[in-house]
Amino acid sequence: MSKSLTYGLLLSILMVIAPHADHLPPWVSGLCAGLLLWRTWLTYTGKPLPKRWLLMLITVAGTAGIVLTFHTLFGREAGVTLLMMLAALKLMELRDTRDAMVLVYLACFIIITNFFYSQSIPTALYLLATMMVIVTTWIHLQAPGIALKPRARIAATLLLQALPLTLILFILFPRVQGPLWGLPQDAYASTGLDDHMSPGSLSRLSLSEAVAFRVSFNGQPPRPDQMYWRGPVLWQFDGRTWSPGRSPFPVAPKFTGLGQPVDYVVTLEPHNKHWLFALDVPDKLSIPSTLTDDFQLLSKAPVNARLRYAARSYLVYHANLQESPRQLERALQLPPGQIDPRARQLAAEWRADSKDDAAIVNTALRYFSQHGFVYTLEAPPLGVNSIDDFLFTTKQGFCEHYASAFVFLMRAANIPARVVTGYLGGEYNDVGNYYIVRQSDAHAWAEVWLAGQGWVRVDPTGAIAPDRVERGLSAALSDKAALPFMERNPPQWLRDLRFNLDAIANQWNQWVLGYDTERQFAFLTRLGMESITWQKMALNMSAGIGLVIALFALYMLRHLYTRRPGKVQAAWLKLCRKLAKSGLPRAAHEGALDYAARVAAARPELARAILDLAARYSALRYGAADDGYARRDFLQRAAAFKI
Amino acid sequence: MLNALPQKFRTWLFRPKVEHGAIMLTQRRIFIIPTRQGFILVFVLVLMLLGDINYNLSLGYVLTFLLTMMAVMSMLHAFRNLAHLEIRAGRAEPVFCGEAAQFMLHFNNPGKLPRYQLCLVQAGDSFWKNTHTPLQFDAPARLDSEVAFPLRATRRGWLQPGRLILYSEFPLGLFYCWSYLHFDTRCLVYPKPLGDAALPAGSSPDGTGKRNAAGDEDFSGLRKYTAGDALPRIDWKAYARERGLQVKQFSTPLGEELWLDHADAPDRNIEEKLARMTRWVLDAEAQGLRYGLRLPNGELQSNNGIAHRDQCLRRIALFNLGGEIP
Questions:
Q1: Which candidate, A152, A418, B116, B274, has a CA 20 to 30 Å from the CA of B177?
Q2: Which residue is closest to A107 within chain B, CA to CA?
Q3: What would the DSSP string read from start to end of A376-439?
Q4: What tens digit of pLDDT does each residue of A226-263 get?
């Protein structure tokens, strides 16, 4: 195996492993890098490959390490890690072409695993670059004699020719709605809301720039401070963490929408959980889903692929005016024991001073706005009595602190209340005319149940930092240092650039990554295909591919089939026929010069002319340059040749 | 797979035809099937597709389709790599038994596309198992490449290469693209000369003029070594002085005639006799003698010179093999 081939294989493996570097366990990244370096050094110095027992030892130790790290060998993370380690190890025992072929296939396979983590446009471009390196190496493997440049040219030709065919296959290949078998729990990487909320959980999420979903409105979009995207509803409080609890007897939710409904389309990024996001409260949804009795939208399966749905919501509504006593009881639950005594006492005072529930709600909001509370991402840690500590000592917190404390106070004052998490607002992208809702827009607010009004949304954050509700996170925070760069106030051109890129990414997501059975049918219908069946698609696909391949074949083989013997050759053959008639046929194996020599010997009177013609002929036919003058000259002389 | 096809169909499809002149590899002559490597790729692709469907990986689909289509296109490239090559069979110089005959083949590539990784091998009995080692070469663009296909000569007489397979797995090794070449070319194989054998004590047909064997002691000079010269006559001292292989020549007075008669060979076996006679012819020529050849089926008048030597060797090589007597 030649050095340059080994370098090619090393580069291929490096290119497929590199994107994984940041999510592999550090020791595996280190091991792979070490193996690659070692192999490079061995190739460079021409030293022999390590002994088999040593490789076996590394393999066993590495596998054991993976089992220890992941507690399994299966599942996505462990599987991918194992695959990558094996590829690096295979490089160490590269002995013949078969080993190299295994490595090439392995490299192609590893590329796919990278798509678990990213399928963005840069990833797609990187895929092409990687394929170019792999195919160039592949050709090198088959034809060791070809120099790098022609090899790369053949690889590029193959890739470029395959691209239009790939497009046809991509559009027409019948899509099967996965999954075919049970997915391991960790099948998809995701960031997003959790169904638990404790101090700090949302402020951590706010640091993420990742897109949660994108929304385009049909018609007038609502005001940003009305865009409460409802997510998990939390009932159960243990003194520190809020969790959903369990609804004992779920009943169908009831609500009446008031005012104009809002229509919009959401493209939700996969987050591996069941819930779907919609403005409260959703009336209609284009995909199968359930609306729970606390108005959470849940999909049937975890959202592990980008999901697109149209929805209609009422922003003004009466929800569950007749709430069941059991639910109201749940909404009054407080942690057992006497933790947070001062908050309970404060609530009791409010209850005593106020004439109705609505007055207490207002008192609480006023309390937040008048007692020097600060809205910050970096809240100080809280002790066992977390609500008391927050309300009376630190007075600094993020939305989860305020929502949590508010609901606690309401419950202590005997008003049914619950925490709602989700997203608030969104960034308008005027390039693509849609809103981007990021993880940094994650928010928590409260809902209280008031007799005659049902569940009413109250956002205590709005009392402390009205800017958060109206203008977004960066407007509300005084210390912006902790925010991601783009959430501070970047220059206009950077914003524009970002919007343009996001608009492209959005199209990419919708059309390339989100190309599923439904999209495929919609697209093919738009192309004019009627009553689509998979047989029809397969037929069209084969026809399209056959046609394109036929066009390529015509182009590639055109030289072969349109080529007639050139004028030069025709003149020479005519001359040979003349000589054959006079009894001197050219033997099949005889070259022009040999033949001329024989003729010259047999017919000395023709010697000069035939030797001259043969020399000119072979110069024209097999020589490098073919200038018009020499050609014409030969043709004239050949025509003038007489026996 | 191909072995399972009815023999009759195969015979028709790959009808062996002996050709003379030039063969143009047209599409009727080129066959193509996937290799083992190709089938393994199909397996890998199916695995990848299942993964794409299961995990709904759109870019995974793109990669899978890209690889599939590259494999398909590589079939066209494999075909083009062989298509419209023009092949002529050239001369094959006579060799001695046990040596490798070199069949010259001319691969004319008139186009501007270089042909890579062409392999030439003798057709085996089975389609899949070919124990012969292939000869691998490239045919550069716009050139007439001459390729010497070696074939070990194991018997005296005419050696025919039979059916050759020209194949290539270029560019990705996924398809085996091949064509059969069956030229009417042949190579003359002389018997392997006996290691060392003294020339017969000369006798002329009329029984007079006994030739003195000591005559070859008249050293007359050196000439370059040619295949078949007797080892004891090589000037090893000259060789040690790095002047190349030289053969000592001994002269015999002109007019003396030597008859190389099969009856003078002491061997019982005819093949051994022929081997000895081969040695005689070579030695006699090397010594510049005039010699004649006498075989049971005829004789050649005494003469000398390379042409005469070759004619004698040819008679010996073809002795009793049937067919034409040259």
A1: A152
A2: B44
A3: -SSPPP--SSHHHIIIIII-EE-HHHHHHHHHHHHHHTT--EEEEEEEE--EEETTTTEEEEEG
A4: 899 999 999 999 888 898 888 777 778 888 888 888 99
pLDDT tens sequence across A176-221: 776 666 555 455 555 678 888 888 888 778 777 788 899 999 888 8
- Three-state SS letters, B300-317: EEEECCHHHHHHHHHHHH
The whole-angstrom separation of Cα A638 and Cα A377 is: 94
Q: Which residue has the higher pLDDT, A622 or A158?
A: A158
Residue A443 catalytic? Answer: yes
pTM here is: 0.71
Does the distance separating the beta carbons of B53 and A178 come in below 8 Å? Answer: yes
Say yes or no: A187 contacts chain B, CB-CB below 8 A: yes
- Check whether the bond before B18 is cis (ω within 30° of 0): no
Report the gap between the CA of B214 and the closest CA in chain A (Å). Answer: 43
Strand partners, B227: none
Judged by a CB distance cut-off of 8 A, whether residue A138 touches chain B is yes
Q: Which of A294, A357, A399, A502 is catalytic?
A: A399
Catalytic entry in A294, A340, A388, A459? A459
- Between chains, do A513 and B76 touch, taking CB under 8 Å as contact? no
Task: Mark yes or no for CB contact A169/B143 under 8 Å.
Answer: no
Q: What is the pLDDT of residues A385-434, one digit of tens each?
A: 889 999 998 888 888 899 999 999 999 999 999 999 999 988 888 888 88
Task: Map tokens 């109250």 to a residue.
Answer: A458
| DSSP letters for B116-170 | EEEEEEE--SSSS---SPPEEEEE-TTEEEEEEEEEE--SSEEE----EEEEE-T
Q: Is residue A502 annotated as a catalytic residue, yes or no?
A: no
Give CA–CA dist B65/B59, Å, rounded. Answer: 10
Burial state string for A232-269 with b = 16 or more CB within 10 A and e = fewer than 16: bbbbbbeebebbbbebeeeeebebebeeebbebebbbb
B25 neighbourhood in chain A, CB within 8 Å: none
User: Alpha carbon of A146 to those of A143, A557, B116: distances in Å?
Assistant: 6, 22, 8
Whether A459 is catalytic is yes
Tell me which of B39, B172, B183, B184 to substitute to probe the interface with A (most A C-beta atoms closer than 10 Å): B172
* CB-closest option in B62, B77, B106 to A166: B62
Banded model confidence at residue B203, pLDDT cuts 50, 70, 90? very low
Structure tokens at B304: 């000398």
Q: How far is the alpha carbon of B37 from chain A, nearest alpha carbon, in Å?
A: 8
Inter-chain residue contact B65 with A166, CB threshold 8 Å = yes
This model of the complex carries an ipTM of 0.79
Convert the pLDDT of each residue in A257-303 to its tens digit: 888 889 999 988 888 888 899 988 888 888 888 888 888 889 888 88
